[in-house]
Amino acid sequence: MPPPSRPLSIVHVGNFPFGLKPGFQHGVAVKLSNGLIRNGHLVLNFSDRDIARAVAPFGARKLGRAPANAALIAFCRHHRPEVLLLGHADVIAAETVAGIRAALPGLKVAQWNVDPLFEPDNLRRIESKMAVVDATFVSTAGAPMMALRAGGRRVAFLPNPADISIERGRADCADVLPYDVFYACGHPSRPLRHICGRDWDMEDFWRRLLARLPGARALLGGLLGQPRIAGAAYQTALESCALGLNVSRRPDHFLYSSDRIAQLAGNGLVVLMERTTGYGEIFGEDEMGFFSSFDELVDVVARLIGDPARRRAVAAAGRARYLALFNERAVAARLLAILTGAADQDALPWQ
Length: 351
Fold this sequence. Notes:
The protein is α/β, with parallel strands linked by helices. The chain is built from twelve helices and 13 strands.
């Protein structure tokens, strides 16, 4: 989808990797800003969490909420953007957005959210700003997304973008890699993950999977005694693995996935995921490693580990299709097109 003909001035509020905490270089906020800039727009990033920490005693973010809101109002009054984009900007109050809109007539406002819609607290955060935005973008499609459209609200699907300036690896080009399978997890048992019809503590899941795959080399950030991985080390880990397990808390919300899917596909790993996610409607069996049962997952992993040429072909095809559909420029252009009314909210990029 081509970008609008006239460049826009955009203030993007989100969790950017600078300030008092190092942040996450693979974050969706960074990729969307990259896509908007590469499409020719002026983007001014505003890291609400960092500003709240910077102005608060002892770096306590909650104590810095009021000054951070005041800072955003001043920032927007100074730069007079045409678009205000809010990405998980939980520090910013709906009243602040309403005040900015009143000060800048004609301003378009959108919020995006890539957390699951089956989490009540996340739904609360989304709905708290729906009265002051023109459009909402979520990384779940189907019935849960449609429910948010009640009352005629504009809500559209947001694919997790991949960006080759961030996802720089090409595991699909290597016959031999240090590891066969990758998975990283901050909290293995909080909450349990629902995979193939049952709830799993991910430590137990990986013990059972590796017992069925003797000799498989797994890089498991934060699991089975392996350290957590962040920053540049996370990217190095992705570049070192052939396959990547993509599971979220539940697989039954159509097209919901954490942004892990973009990190895996973009770096040329074969993405392993359940068919019930709905991604089989977009990608073929020759582009991702789909499974419907634990036994089938074991079989898929064993076959791909044992056949590097086949693994490379599947990974390369999946990477190429993911980047063609969901690269940062395409996702950013679609977001703006829907926000400005140049595209319908039901228009899906793979159809």
